[in-house]
């Protein structure tokens, strides 16, 4: 892809422009915009995550294998989500970002509703592809907007706040999906999940403001500077920190996304009797209880974790920029033994509470990693850099994680002969070991981050 730049501007010089860190709107409007973007990202992840609690009912209804669940919830979605993220980000470097986001919300919400009408595996995969196409237009423009809305010194906290949409959306997806599926079936759960998108699309179209014109009043560099995709990629090629944090975060996502479709299945297969007993105490069925328990416990812990990650990173980075990678690196290391213990204990209740501990450190990487992605390049490269970062994270994490864990579960169950219960347990335990690789990559970024941050 090639583009003509309006004027040749050195990236480091452009990064120093006053508008790069100016706050273009009032504090009250910025707060509103941040909460609206958070709400949009919650709906984004709700529509993406609801399939996880519905995996077992869908499998039984449509007679699917675990690898098909992994393909449906991971690779089919991720290929289009990641690939289209880059051209949409290129558009976001020049066009109205709120319009792009609003259109994306309308698209993915519509395909989520359509997922409820799927009659076979192929139809469901096509609907999930449609969700991926729509969601590709959300986060790269949103990251770029947030970097323009808030001062540089609050960037990690602001992006961590936005990233709280991941655990909050997951919480709502699990709770709502499980309860609706128990009451009305898994098809209606998709319909309910997709419905709120209409409101958020309208709010994005009519109330989100594009800050470029305001920022251009402070600096002509905003209007004069553009970079082609090739120039941005070449610039990033010299940034060792970017590739280390991208691969480290991708492995974290590989583990998280890989576990998500099979966590409820693990409890239903390994602790089925205990889960049924716990559910009956709340006058619920097993799937509804698991959605409620995993959503509230894991989602709350993940939300706290995402928020803390940004706060801690911004605080320590004031004196040492290495804090941006030290925090997620240490969290990655600690998560490995905690998760292995959670899926090894004989009690479902104990496993749920240990997973809460895992959740409290599992999302610490969001704010720091995304802040590095927005700070390691000049302002006119931010949306494209966010898309490249998300391309790497989601292609490896979302695309391969669920599929790999599903294949591993089938191998352990059928080839090794452990059966479906122990097969999924060992698949979860073995895959979490990749957290050691994530730790090594993130820790290695400490050597270069101080020299490579520019904006």
Notable features of this structure?
transmembrane; transport; MFS_trans_sf; MFS family permease; globular; Growth Hormone, Chain: A; 455 residues; membrane
Describe, in plain words, how this protein is organized in 3D.
By secondary structure, the protein is mainly α. The protein has one domain (25-211, 218-452): Growth Hormone, Chain: A (Up-down Bundle), CATH 1.20.1250. 79% of the residues lie in helices and 0% in strands. The protein has 24 helices and no strands. The longest helix has 34 residues, at 382-415. The chain is globular. Residues 1-21 and 220-224 have low confidence and may be disordered. Its main location: membrane. Keywords: Membrane, Transmembrane, Transmembrane helix, Transport. Residues 33-450 form the Major facilitator superfamily (MFS) profile domain.
List the helices and strands and how they pair.
Blueprint: H1 11-15, H2 27-53, H3 55-62, H4 66-92, H5 97-115, H6 121-135, H7 139-149, H8 155-163, H9 165-184, H10 186-194, H11 197-207, H12 212-216, H13 221-224, H14 229-237, H15 240-270, H16 272-281, H17 286-317, H18 323-344, H19 348-362, H20 366-375, H21 382-415, H22 419-432, H23 435-444, H24 449-452
| Termini gap | 25 Å
Runs in which pLDDT lies below 50 for 5 or more consecutive residues are 1-21, 220-224
How many H/I helical runs?
A: 24
Beta-strand content estimate: under 5%
| Outline | globular
CATH architectural group: Up-down Bundle
Largest sheet: none
Please report the total strand number as a whole number. Answer: 0
The CATH class is identified as Mainly Alpha
Structural class: mainly alpha
CATH superfamily: MFS general substrate transporter like domains
Average pLDDT level: 85
Helix content: over 70%
Number of domains in the coordinates? Answer: 1
CATH fold naming: Growth Hormone, Chain: A
Radius of gyration: 21 Å
Give the ordered list of helices and strands: HHHHHHHHHHHHHHHHHHHHHHHH
InterPro entries: MFS, MFS_dom, MFS_spinster-like, MFS_trans_sf
Protein name: MFS family permease
Main location: membrane
Keywords: Membrane, Transmembrane, Transmembrane helix, Transport
